[in-house]
Amino acid sequence: MTTISNNKELRDFIIGLPKTELHLHIEGTLEPGMIFSLAQRNGVTLPYASEQALRDAYAFTDLQSFLDLYYAGAGVLLTEQDFHDMTIAYLKRAHADGARHVEIMFDPQTHTVRGVPIDTVFQGLASAARQARSQWGISSYFILSFLRHLSEEDAFATLEQALPLRKDYADLWIAIGLDSAERGNPPEKFARVYAKCRELGFRLVAHAGEEGPPDYVRDALDLLKVERIDHGVRSEEDPALMQRLAEMQMPLTVCPLSNLKLCVFDSMEQHNIARLLRQGLRVTVNSDDPAYFGGYLVDNYLAIAQSLDLGRDDLGVLARNSILASFLPDSDKQSLLNELDNYLAKHNVI
Ligand code: ADE
Ligand code: ZN
Fold this sequence. Notes:
Elements: H1 2-16, E1 19-25, H2 32-42, H3 51-56, H4 63-74, H5 80-96, E2 99-106, H6 108-112, H7 118-136, E3 139-147, H8 152-162, E4 173-179, H9 191-199, E5 203-208, H10 214-222, E6 228-231, H11 239-247, E7 252-254, H12 256-261, H13 273-278, E8 283-285, H14 290-293, H15 297-307, H16 312-324, H17 330-346
Parallel strand pairs: 1-2, 2-3, 3-4, 4-5, 5-6, 6-7, 7-8
Helix pairs in contact: 1-15, 5-7, 16-17
């Protein structure tokens, strides 16, 4: 009984923390219920008899075993309305979790390969982002992410398709990311397309050190010149890299429930986020693909708070890091930081 009420109290405290979410794949927010309803709406046949049968298949052994289902699930997305419905459902949930700002990754290649025009994807995401901003006050940026299991040539072609739309979505599409199967697809493979995106003025992030070695984190910094590392948890295996990440205050967008589900760690008690935090790294908490990994933003904070014995002061630092690591203008960051300070003071957290 006490535990339940403590959990509620802790959950409410986490919800109230002014914070952002910086590592979220919009295709990873497709809940089984929505996959089934979009499949029905679009006449797509699914190889699962029920939502429960689909959910039962979410027993992953590694990143690839998840990606196979994730790409199959995204196959129900065909129309602008589909992309809008998926995105507004996530933004409603993020708002309920107390996220003030989110930076959303999307994988255009997953859709264009099926014949979905890239402007359908942009338009559906953008109409939801703009609606959420006016309805709930939550702001969004988009991170167009290249699939690293495909070629750099394919990434260049995607960039070329997307660039004419930049003027219509200048308020939203501000960054480039790199995701999908990490092992065997090192950062080096995308050095030229990242150099081009940098020249074009995009902010840069990349997945590295999720399943791949610490060398991939170093190469993401040196060869891709990223400003944030998505995941990065395997950096811990390399003390010199750890020192570098701490010194430069390089943000890591850590996703605890994802790491657990994809067997990066055997249990939440063994997750290294608390150690990374103690060593002075700018770590943030995120949900990655919440529909597949069993929890949204607040669930991730709650899971590490409970399993790693983090205090409210630690949770405050994580929320602060999420604001500092965002691509928001400095003035917006400052007002969120002020709100966070007031919130922590009100809750007697120094
Ligand atoms: N795409 C969606 N989720 C991902 C993850 N956790 N790692 C790499 N690519 C992804
Ligand atoms: Zn990810």
